[in-house]
Write a structure and sequence with these properties.
This protein has 3 helices and no strands. By secondary structure, the protein is mainly α. It is elongated and about 50 Å long.
């Protein structure tokens, strides 16, 4: 049976993959997916702590994190769509809207 350490190790691996992908990738859509991966890793850790401590606090916080993740994804994708329509690219290096 999987213990708390197994879930936390999986959560740490998922979060690390998200951080590495966030810093190494240049595609905005992949960066958004990496942020979602990091949020899901934190949800996994919260769920594991809530399950093994027999409290509901972590499970309540998970709903708020899911709501924040949904809002972040909707906002991020709408910005990406607007930038793609204007610049015809989704790469971070080629998006220099503030430069004159």
């Amino acid at each position: 049976m999987a213990g708390l350490n197994h879930y936390l190790l999986l959560s740490a691996i998922m979060f690390s993959m998200g951080v590495v992908g966030f810093f190494l990738r240049r595609n905005v859509i992949v960066i958004l997916m990496c942020v979602e991966l990091m949020l899901n890793a934190s949800n996994l850790a919260l769920a594991a702590f809530a399950q093994f401590s027999n409290t509901i606090d972590g499970k309540v916080i998970i709903f708020f994190v899911i709501g924040i993740a949904a809002a972040e994804l909707a906002t991020g994708l709408s910005i990406v769509i607007c930038l793609f329509r204007n610049r015809e690219t989704v790469f971070v290096d080629e998006m220099n809207l503030m430069k004159q």
